[in-house]
């Protein structure tokens, strides 16, 4: 009988160990989405900031383009020197 008790105990210990490993992996999976959400939120925030900066640069470039066109027209009206 003692020979059979040892394998049963060993089997139960292994089963507990397996269930603990499964529980640990579930807990890790529960944590990961929060980290991913935080990272995604940060990426979205940075993307919005970059878009805003690009819009400001584009606006400044349009102003300079308009000024340059005005200067070219004025120089064209004056004629060659």
UniProtKB/TrEMBL annotation:
Comp. bias intervals (Basic residues): 9-19
Biased composition (Acidic residues): 25-34
Region of interest (Disordered), ranges: 1-34
Name used for this protein in its record: Uncharacterized protein
Source lineage: Eukaryota, Metazoa, Spiralia, Lophotrochozoa, Mollusca
């Amino acid at each position: 009988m003692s020979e059979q008790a040892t394998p049963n105990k060993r089997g139960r210990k292994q089963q507990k160990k397996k269930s603990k490993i499964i529980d640990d992996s579930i807990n890790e999976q529960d944590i990961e989405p929060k980290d991913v959400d935080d990272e995604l939120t940060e990426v979205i925030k940075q993307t919005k900031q970059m878009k805003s900066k690009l819009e400001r640069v584009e606006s400044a470039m349009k102003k300079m383009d308009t000024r340059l066109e005005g200067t070219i027209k004025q120089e064209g009206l004056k004629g060659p020197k």
